[in-house]
Design a protein that fits this description.
- This protein has helices at about 15-25, 45-65, 75-85, 95-105, 120-125, 125-135, 145-150, 160-175, 190-200, 210-220, 240-250, and strands at about 5-10, 30-35, 70, 90-95, 110-115, 140-145, 180-185, 205, 235, 260.
- It is α/β, with parallel strands linked by helices and about 270 residues long.
- The protein folds into 2 domains: about 5-95 and about 210-265, Rossmann fold, CATH 3.40.50; about 95-205, Rossmann fold, CATH 3.40.50.
- The strands form 2 sheets. The chain has a 6-stranded parallel sheet with strand order 4-3-1-2-9-10, with helices on both faces. The chain has a 4-stranded parallel sheet with strand order 6-5-7-8, with helices on both faces.
- It is globular.
- The two termini are about 30 Å apart.
- Bound molecules: D-glutamic acid.
- The site of D-glutamic acid (DGL) has 18 residues, from α3.
Length: about 270
């Protein structure tokens, strides 16, 4: 048994969609969340910068005595997961592997769409992992950078989101894909618009649930589950703006107030 919290981080509010699933799957775990709202987006930055920011956040979370960390960001997971596991001793779980496993069990016609940030799509992480499991899978990828500011602004269900999704996804829908991976943790905030555009025959794969399950299996296997009742949650952001709290409330159905953390110090 291990009473320490789980650390979860993202470039901004996107990782809250992962926190939501962790709260469901691991209701007795405490969570410390960090959203790098001052430096979002990560998707248009270089691998070196994303790695530097991620290392700072992990050092910050370690000062909060977390027992394990979830990288609730596809950009970090697909570009620097290996380097981060080499740099830090703490158990780290990422989101790409769980997303790939879910997708492989869902696709029937083996035509898969992957959407994510520019850095995630450029890394080809999803494509490589999907093809490593099943070389017959065809992967159609598309970077959708504008989805991130739309989600950060709380406009995930607006007409702007629908128009943007139509523009980005028009080629993918012509490829006869039967599932689409939301390869960015911000994108579940636009899920209903994406669903409208791709149509009901395309299954939407959000890696968040499988990621939370993976953390649960890890904690169980290592006898690290918390045995108390209920979880305590603490949210930090590098720039505490009102919209972080309001998106937090929308996603998690409860009012939380984020605290400011000076991440450049770490
Ligand atoms: N939510 C992040 C992801 O899953 C990053 C979005 C961004 O900062 O560009 O990729």
């Amino acid at each position: 048994m291990d009473k320490r919290p789980i650390g979860v981080f993202d470039s901004g509010v996107g990782g809250l969609t992962v926190v939501k699933q962790v709260m469901k799957v691991l209701p007795n775990e405490d969570i410390i969340y960090f959203g790098d709202t001052a430096r979002v987006p990560y998707g248009s930055k270089s691998k070196e910068t994303v790695k530097k920011f991620s290392s700072q956040i992990i050092r910050f979370l370690i000062t909060k005595e977390v027992k394990a960390i979830i990288i609730a960001c596809n950009t970090v997971s697909s570009n620097c997961y290996e380097e981060l596991t080499e740099e830090f001793d703490i158990p780290i779980i990422e989101v790409v592997g769980p997303g790939v496993s879910s997708c492989v069990s869902i696709t029937k016609n083996k035509k898969v769409g992957v959407i994510g940030t520019e850095a995630t799509i450029r890394s080809k992480a999803y494509e490589k992992k999907l093809k490593a499991i099943d070389s017959e899978i065809s992967v159609y990828s598309k970077a959708c950078p504008l989805f991130v500011p739309i989600a950060e602004e709380g406009l995930g269900e607006s007409e702007i989101a629908v128009l943007t999704a139509k523009e980005y996804l028009k080629e993918l829908v012509q490829m006869n894909i039967d599932c689409i991976i939301l390869g960015c943790t911000h994108y579940p905030l636009l899920k209903s618009c994406i669903a409208k555009v791709v149509g009901e025959n395309v299954k939407i794969v959000d890696p968040a649930m499988a990621t939370a399950q993976k953390m649960k299996s890890f904690l169980k296997e290592n006898n690290m589950l918390n045995d108390k009742k209920g979880g305590d949650y603490c949210f930090y952001a590098s720039d505490v703006a009102d919209n972080f709290d309001s998106i937090c409330t929308t996603v998690l159905n409860r009012i939380y107030k984020a605290k400011q953390a000076d991440i450049e110090k770490y």
